[in-house]
Amino acid sequence: MNNALIKVDIYNRQIGTGTKEELHKSAILHRAFSIFIFSGTRMLIQKRAFDKYHSGGLWANTCCSHPRDGEDTVGAAKRRLMEEVGLAAHIKEALTFTYYYKFAEELYEYEYDHVFIGEYPESEDGEVRMDISKLKPNPEEIAELEFIEFEELERQLIEIPEKFAPWFLISAPKVMKVIRDF
């Protein structure tokens, strides 16, 4: 399979391809996606594996990655959700945003991020139906999964932002607003 990622302009039009390493080393704008799975007023978040090349041990959305050249973004998102979390879900695009972050010298993220949401329905008694202990997250990607109440997540985003990946600080409030307005 083609592993080239998609370079884009500020309007998300493809202008070329590049490797993940070169795009992140040179701060080149490229296409990415983030997936947020929720159930009622709970969001499924992940603690990134500690050995990740950036943001290891930080909390983030359910799944995120990049579509490959020639790959449909929603198809790529579904593929990675299964590979990373072990979960198949119906998802839909909720919003997009662009962000830039410098992690270290020659390590950047400059991404046009497509944000997908997917609902995992609650049971009639308001409990989350998904037993996350039955999921098989990829240990190279994820150290831990957890459902967190929106109110608790909002509190933590304000009081302990250093606990979260930089893109999550931008996207999580937007996603919670979309879900509440849904």
SSE run: EEHEEEEHEEEHH
CATH superfamily: Nucleoside Triphosphate Pyrophosphohydrolase
Low-confidence stretches: none
The CATH topology is given as Nucleoside Triphosphate Pyrophosphohydrolase
Structural class: alpha+beta
User: Whole-number radius of gyration?
Assistant: 16 Å
Q: What's the CATH class, please?
A: Alpha Beta
Into how many domains do the coordinates divide?
1
Mean pLDDT: 92
| Span between termini | 36 Å
The tally of strands reads 9
Summary of the model, kept short:
The chain is 25% helix and 36% strand. By secondary structure, the chain is α+β, with helices and mostly antiparallel strands.
What report would you give on this structure?
The chain is of the alpha+beta class and 182 residues long. It has one domain: Nucleoside Triphosphate Pyrophosphohydrolase, CATH 3.90.79.10. It contains four helices and nine strands; from the N terminus they run ββαββββαβββαα. Strands 3, 4, 5, 6, 7, 8 and 9 form a seven-stranded mixed beta sheet that branches. A two-stranded antiparallel ribbon has the order 1-2. β7 and β8 form a beta hairpin.
Write a concise keyword list for the protein shown above.
single chain, 182 residues, alpha+beta, Nucleoside Triphosphate Pyrophosphohydrolase, seven-stranded mixed sheet, two-stranded antiparallel ribbon, 9 strands, 25% helix, globular
In terms of topology, how is this protein built?
Elements: E1 5-8, E2 14-18, H1 20-25, E3 30-39, E4 42-48, E5 59-60, E6 63-65, H2 73-85, E7 92-104, E8 107-119, E9 142-149, H3 150-159, H4 166-181
Parallel strand pairs: 3-8
Antiparallel strand pairs: 1-2, 3-4, 3-6, 4-5, 4-9, 7-8
